[in-house]
């Protein structure tokens, strides 16, 4: 490790989990760059305590330690706006990891500004999407920020070297065993848990039943279906079974009920921004339920062409988020369009949950329903719709087809 | 009924089911237009015998009676090409009704040409999409065809009047009671059964459990999961559990197995082309399974940008089919693109079916997999991918974002 | 003319030009519907006096006469928002007629509400786009409005019958001769003049030189080029050669200078919404110049992906306007996106005008230029850009292509 | 220059112009990589002799020298297919440089295969698009090819160092003076000449009149307009004024006539793929005329929705080419769609050329015109179109708007 290259930095803000990898990074930054390290640890619903990171950081000599609960901000300003768009990457992935990165990136650069740090650092590897998401976000928000991605720089490119480095620098490795045992890597936040790598790298391999943590196996889910009602306001869920909930509490509740019924698993092969295919298993119980319910409330409150416009733009919007462009001007302008469509997406959706299934069984909106029974009825509509109009409608839509037939 | 207006036609080809409605239409055409009626009855897997239509037509004086088994053609030339595009209308509807109409339209005009008929006729109402699909199809294929849509013309606009007309003209009404009892209307073919109207017109109303006919209730489906393997060639399923099947037999098999496991129900509110919202319940067991499996085989055999291009175009393609533009030049040109993407979509998908759930648990392609474990691995990749490249990739992708930040 | 059908209306607001056609309509409405007619005549820069319409309407017994100067509103709220999108229908038509109709439709329904009229009426024919634009606009703004389109109803379907009707009802026909002589029909407003019909119906026929009215023949335009500077603020032109101008005055000025230099003619065949192709000749001098200048100011102030997003959406946006969907929710939501992109489109464009040509020769923005000479320079950039980054950028973008090659 | 790093290569194919830069590269490759260099010099209409490159290469010790006339292939397989799509990058750039690179890339890898070379090399800098285009093309066609981009590697990063290197290695620098004098850099082929860099780096600077080489200054162009006729077959121009011409001869002819009339200049700021904005001046006389004519022949032979589909896809297609993805699967599949739309794009376009202006004054197609005068006529159409159909057409298109109004 060449501690050379006059690459001195005064201070670096590190996205710090408290685990082995980022602890080694912490030490390595101090050694390699001779800099002060500021740690930032966020609770975004990953399901692990964040407080223990404080002691670990202190032990490594860190003075500025940021530990924050970002659950509400995460859901309100990131997850919900994204669900307004019905975003699915490649038709299946609910972007659970992707949507958390922009928030982390934002806080990293904000803390860099607060603490006068020149750089930020993260523990994402050089093969994945997360490095891109962290860094594009950071550069967009603070163009002159320096970014250190140790996994792309150092030579600690095997588990063994990492452990040796930890031992040599007296870094606790209690997490070692568990990590070693898990035959895949995980990422978790309030929206999802993902699994990839290890055994999952064979796309013909079916994951072990005990890999899944946030959803009950559909086979073991309750034998009785459960009905739930979700109330939406401007496209966001605001009440569950008639009870108002804050954004994070709502998502937690949706996770709980959907997870209990075995809803929200996905096992897919996706295309990474950096160019390769990758197999990922995802648990997104609440998000899966939310997407279904949101589509249902839109189905009665959203004008047809507005819905189609959103459907046409969705893959692009989802790809932007997947690729790390949350803070790009194009995502921000698209959000303006999407949010504008949600003004009247108000009402209630009723769903039946059962062993991995969600069936929408009812949707209503007192104020904004566009479903007009008096028009669509098969029965006498008392003149609400003149069937004779259909002839002209068809004739004029057919005109170009009839003319075009001449060419055949 | 004014038998006036000099609206004489020599001969009309009628899409004839043998049921009450089209029997009344048959008679009405003879009366109203003083014309010979040619009947056309197709078996497209609706699950009812078509032969009985012969005797009924004969009884009404029809001489030219066409009764045809179009199952194979329907699946091979309509259903499979559509599934190559992963088509879903408004994110949820698998276009079961929409995709059958172009085939019927085509045969109607072909028979008109064979028999020298000036016109065709159908039993679709003036409020629905089907009239549009029949007529746009027919006009595109034969611009000078005349089309008679009795429901838009006559005054038999209530059940009672229809029955009176039937009685008056000695038309058997055995179907009457059943029809009257079913609190909704149905459409069926090898791809799906749909239910709409009646009680379903209230979008808050949950349909009765016994409405569903082609899928077992997930609650009553087998308690044991079942694994199946589907083999694709050029994007079409060709083998089921290793056994070659013709297109129609394949879809029948997929219906059987998916239906048994309670897979393929949908309860949605959709936007009709003619301008109103409409609630529909759909059973598409085989199609639902096929879509899932097709996406999965694409996930390892289709290049990322090809997949994204398809995703971007899909809503437009699906809307074209929904709206009745199967025979339009734009659908035909889009199909060229889609089919070209499927050249290497070859391989096997393994799925686990259980009580309404389908989980993809494996996908492989000996000849065409783009999944390269040696690159995506978290382990040492022996130089297949240089992590340092990621820095340049990110830096250049970030450049515009950094410059753009100056405006903020 | 059957004055029957119990089709009584209390009051109708008529879009009234004062010309022969709408005068006949005025009378016909009074006769046919036994209703009071309210006339609405707008000055939107068509270049003819609107005041004379007052006397004509009075002579026909009209009591409520609305004559309004809408030039500023037209440009500010319709033309400029549309140009923010760089809208061109089918790559060539600047939507001069299309963009005026929504304003007229809006005023018609507003006046109907003010005067308690049940219906509105217009003089557009049943073959064109304008009927659609008027009526979709009116229905969107006031769903229960009744619309009377005499050209689709009456039997005055020839020039001769129209003149006879006028004579019979003592309607002045001074415009008759001119109309008869002009071998095409015209539409004009502050944005453009259009010519269609008559001799122009042969797409191989070159229009006479004297047809064009708002632009000098390029062959007769000044032999000296002229330089002009247009200053933009939030995407709208606000200064011409350094002088502030109101929206209508700006467009008038642009028309004047561009017209003098022979800029802004187009001779095209377009596809009407009602299904047929139609040949139109257009003069849009100021608009043509504005579009060129707007694209140029965007070229240095708009982020690349924002520009591409706009380019991708533009044809759809333009088609919405062409088809009459200005007041649709989808146009309104798209406008939100477009307007959001224009926040920083501030700066000056310099153009050289000469005999039909416009060459952008300079663009600058003190506050918002994203053109960074220090990066793009071929000379030494002092480290602003690391050329080595390009290798990683290319390598990762190539990765999927390299993997995909395996299939070949 | 460290001739170290065990980076030995057996043989490298170099895209060689014979000029100073690529001569230095040739020598540098021999020195740095100790390899044999194969030179490839293509005539693609750049307007300079290619034969002189032979002697220069021989003098530098090259044994395998490829000198090829690719004009016909360039126009037939690259330029014409691209014009079928009406491709314009960012609404203004006709992709003159972009479209030539894929052909060069293809020949480089083919020659590498023929000669057993491991690598290819080119003279594009690390800031531009061309490096990306060469390399993405090469990687797509031959994934294991090695690519050497000296400008990203060496330290000859100033004119002076380059000249010193040339002098030291006895490389003729006759081009030196001219290059030094030209205050911008150029690229030329049969489709265009581009100018960028130097004085043009100031986007407010108007280029000198004598920069432009392939088009006459509009001010100096003939005072008499000229009429020309271009005949298209399947979307490609095949006859000029009734005379059949091969692809390259056609483009040469179009260049000649358009250039003489001052047609085809553009002065724009564009967004490079590598992230920065860049100012470019382009002369594309024949291409500009071809685009105008192609749009015109499409206007009467292409169905509306086919035309709109093409317009919607065009920006994406153009961006693919601009960014270097000609050989990508997505470009190839899109081409299938585009080519399919051109099957009936047959006919003649008549244009009037005058001092920088092109006015389409006629278009006709004996076999494939969809322009039906009998329908669009303002005169009596003898029943070809029933104006009453328009009412139903409008009513049903308005239905959703009327219902949606309830939400307001």
UniProtKB/TrEMBL annotation, chains A, B, C, D:
Its main location: cytoplasm. Residues 184-403 form the Arginosuccinate synthase C-terminal domain. L-citrulline binds at residues 93, 98, 129, 133, 185, 194, 270, 282. This is Argininosuccinate synthase. The gene is argG. L-aspartate binds at residues 125, 129-130. The keyword Cytoplasm applies. Residues 11-171 form the Arginosuccinate synthase-like N-terminal domain. It comes from Methylohalomonas lacus.
